[in-house]
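README, section 4: Worked example with a bound small molecule

Sections 1 through 3 covered apo chains. Here we extend the same pipeline to holo records, where the ligand is supplied as SMILES alongside the sequence. The molecule in this example is pyridoxal-5'-phosphate. Nothing else about the input changes; the structure line simply encodes the ligand pose together with the chain.
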Amino acid sequence: MNPLDSLYRDLIMDHARHPQGKGLQDPFDGESFQVNPTCGDQVRLRVDLDNTGEQPKLAQVSWDGQGCSISQASVSMMKDLVEGEDLDQVAHLEEIFGRLMHSRGQGIDPDEAALLGDAEALEGTSRYPMRVKCALLGWMALKDAVAKAQAGDNSPAGAPEGI
Amino acid sequence: MTASSGEVLTAAPLTDSELVAIRSDFPLLSRRALTGQPLVYLDSAATSQRPRIVQDAMRDFTDNHNGAVHRGAHALAEEATDAFEQARAAVAQFVGAGAGEMVFTSGTTAGINLLTTSWAAASRGAGSGAARRFAVLPGDRIVVTQAEHHANLVPWQQLAAATGAELAWVRVDREGRLRLEDLEDVVTARTRVVAFTHASNVSGAVTDVAAMVAAAKEAGALTVLDAAQTAPHRALDLAALDVDFAVFSAHKMLGPTGIGALYGRADLLEAMPPGPTGGSMVEIVTMSEATFQPPPSRFEAGTQAVTQTVGWAAAIDYLTHLGMDRLAAHEAALTARLLDNVGEISGVRILGPAHPSNRLGAVAVEVDGVHPHDVGQFLDAQGIAVRVGHHCAQPIHRALGVNASTRASVAVYNTTAEVDRFAEALDQVRAYFGAAL
Ligand SMILES: Cc1ncc(COP(=O)(O)O)c(C=O)c1O
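The generated complex, written as structure tokens:
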């Protein structure tokens, strides 16, 4: 596969063209707004928790934003992956994905990578340090939104006026 | 040949053999892209490549003349001081200014921050009576434009916030040109300063400086010209442009990073209180007070980037030998070709004037259905280096209806073939990403 095709795998382009969870949902327990400073790409992401069980679960993830195919596909894949999982597992997946992205094309243990579902296809991104930020944008928003939800803060996340 | 009103191109474009010779002066241009293809460097508006003589001059200074400038009585200190002051004179002459009007800074951004820091101090009462002309008071106005690079916007926002002044701006039209008709309403009698770019690093549009200066003068406001994009591409005569201050960076004009200059009219610099303070810029220092040197030293606190000034002087020498008129003629031809080629690609919109007159060769585009990061990645895979993102100018992007763009920018060492390769690659982008119908 040529390097460009290994970055833009079909699976990634499918998610980018048909993003999952796009469109903000109400009600929500936590919201985050994140910007990629190099390109101005933005994502607003909401989480809704399910606290009825022994462990709090991520009941719903919804988002809106603009960005490149990597950032859009990554949020979409993330939503598919983490929705319905308990928060410990979400944090675990986040940690694995972060390591994959920072592996500079070396990849990570295949068993771990397999836990990432479609998001494993983003491995090629790790070869392009400038693009890793794109892939992590949604994950940063998720982490922030979950932290807010757990802290009982469901205020709308701020963006400067005029954006 | 008349390119447009007021812009007369008399010089002949470079011949093929001249261009080959020029390219051979730039070692980096002969490296290959990661893909193994010849590298096509079309990102000179961000930072330009350097002719070998720049590094040679810095090496010679380092190996033979390095010493502390304006300090010490040994021969090296003398030689280093000479090199530093000769560089200042070379920069000044290159832009039609006096050496005493040229303050070295670390770049355009630092030059603007020097002004805003000094003026904030003047607003708090620092300096002599003459410094009051830089005081910005609550209810005063600071005028900028929507086309500014963040470097010539954010420091003014900060100064406005610190002083209680209001910030107002001239808008851009759909081609990214300044709407000069805004001037009448925007530049009020309480306007203290009009800070504007000589050319947008996004749209490439060159500003009608005379119109801006006339409006500012009528209001009694100071003018600050951001010449970061024009200094590399046009012969500048700051005295003739009649601006009060101007800023530019070496690294966009074939020189090294870490050095640039702030030009200020002699009488203004004389009256201005210092920005950053410390060593080298003082006369008498007691435990409680200090007096300051005359300009330009007053504005050069701390040890200066002397080696870089020597490299910059070499770059200016290179440009001077080439002839800025020949350079401009070559770049105008490349720009016209670039605009023609890109203008024909379906689904690609030029964010700036589509016609080459009164514009530089920075051509930013929106590719329908494909994000600039993806466009840039696609081009990079073909060995073509362009800039993607907002190019540190978010407001003009927003005004043109996009978040970010893909920008190709030419310099004297680029060829027609390179410009064509860019256009051919750009033409394939939408198909690759499935955006073309
Ligand atoms: C128009 C304009 N102004 C200011 C700057 C900032 O220059 P520097 O980063 O060298 O301080 C740039 C360069 O990016 C520019 O294009």
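What to look for in the output: Chain B has two domains: 16-51+323-430, 56-319. DSSP finds 14 helices and 17 strands in chain B.

Section 5 describes how to batch many such records.
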